[in-house]
Amino acid sequence: MEDKDYEIIQNRIGYEFKNLDLLQQAFVRRSYAQEEGGQDNEILEFIGDKVLDMSIVRMLAEEFGSFCSSKEGFDDENDYDEFCCEHSEGELTEIKSSLVEKKTLAKVIDEMDLAQFLIVGKGDYKNRVYQQESVKEDLFEAIVGAIALDCGWDWDKIISSVDYMLQPKERIESGENENYVELIQQWSLRKHGILPEIVTANAGYREVYPKTVPKDEIRAKPEKEVKRSGRVNDNEFRKNHFLCRLKLKGVKHVFIGTGKSRKEARKVACSEAYHYLDVNHLLTSIEDEVGRPSRADSINQLETLSRRGYFPLPEYSYSEGRTKDGNSSWSCVCSIEGFKRSFRSRSSSKKEAKKSAAYKMIKYVLQEYS
Questions:
Q1: Which of 64, 124, 195, 263 is deepest in the core (most CB within 10 A)?
Q2: Final residue in a domain of this structure, among 261, 279, 297
Q3: Has 288 been annotated as catalytic?
């Protein structure tokens, strides 16, 4: 590499190397090392793969998680000091997988236009391996591994560089990594207590995509619908693609997704179904999330809605007083950031005062969202 190449690469990845040999090694394929000698980028790729996973896990924990604790200590069974997160384990796994998958990392390398600096052997160059997604994925991971070694495992620098290159927050906010499969499954279970009917097979299978498509088998976005004529009959398309047929109970439309893998086809079909439900106001309502207001379960109902992103965690403030008879009396105020009203309840028990205040709040919240 020339000095100008080092400068360009470092500007694009947001990190300045102390050891430029490490940077160059990240771009050396095994085919070149076998021909010319020296070290290739495979060990750096191995290191970067693990470092990238840990970096994303830390980013997701900081972005969506926080420690939730009670202001009044821990003398109540409903008080807590726990790690809370806006997403479930499955949702976080899906987001992480989407951020580190081959397609995403290859896209980032393309956006930074770094494949042009790859150092490959004659055979690889002739076969244009530098255009393959897997090679670009390896390059991204090798760069991360080189950064980890160069900075002496300084996690602040590592995460800063990963964030600079991958821009995970922007990709998540753009909806690129929405887990539509899980969202559709949750919708079907909450609405009807059953999983959706999903059939996925090779693109040529008539069981998935019959020759004559019924009128009610449409996509949410007709302009993107896969036409059988001239495509499914093509042997190459049938060999390399899959079709997914998705049917939801209570919805007359059947949604069709296509992709180069069963997983991709299923994601497309579920994405189309989700957007259709959204456009037609058929998605799960807030009432579906928790059911009817329950005084006995009001504290948990509010927390459930908060963890699912409807509003911040409720806050409870207490004050102790005395009745005219000299007995202990507790006052609890329940408030939620973003809502104009807060609710107060009194009881001889701190726990009962909290339940009553939460019950008033959950009724108010459901009314506000209706």
A1: 124
A2: 279
A3: no
